[in-house]
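Exercise 7.
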Amino acid sequence: MLIDPFSKRLLNSGKNNKPIALMYHSIFNKNSQLKSPWSISLQQFIQHLDLLQDYGWTTVCSSQLSDPIDQLPKKTVVITFDDGYADNYQAFEELVKRNMLASWFIVSNDLGKSPSWSDADTTPSKLLETTQLIDMLAAGMEIGSHTLSHCRLTEASNEKIHAEVFESRCYLSDLLDSSITSFAYPYGLYNETVLLATKSAGYQVAFTTSSGFGFIHNNPLESRRISIMSNDSLSTFARKITFAANDVSWNTMAGYGLSRVKSHLGF
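Solution. The predicted structure, written as tokens, is:
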């Protein structure tokens, strides 16, 4: 693996002893023309899985974060996918090959269809089919909700929030004959009203787009995640999982190094 010496040293240091969550979206193959900042190649994803395995990381589904996290292995990672793009199925197949787990957050109104929502920087790809979700569940993966329509919940009425949060859970649960206990906020947007609706709907874990370890306010319904982007090198990925941060640029790393030196010198 092509990782710079500094990033490799961080991986070997064992610095990270807390669970982290990674956020993926689309996985394109070498022939695909549908790319965005939120899409990574299948080869990149394979490299991520190989790195995690080589350095002793354990993958768990997001629902396990509702358990006492201090009982999880020291190097635990939750691999998550938002939206439910059909190209994620090849990522699922790579996970199965390695006996690794992941969680998918599905926009339930668009199963098997093109997305009904539109964003300038996303991939207009078809979503997974119901039969594929059933295959994924049977292999030990987790399916969670990402609302009915991928709306901005903080701009919605109370009635719409209830429908998007509660009805999406009921729909997926009935469709898949499976308990749906995890949720991801579209665009990472939520407020107290949305939090209350998420809790009332029966979710035990819900994901934001804020980076870091663990939970905001010690609340599993405000779980942090690290964004994985198309321009992340393998070294960048290594630093992201070490620091549970989105900004692991060399300027930031220089600041980290300087703070360590000052600490050793007693400043």
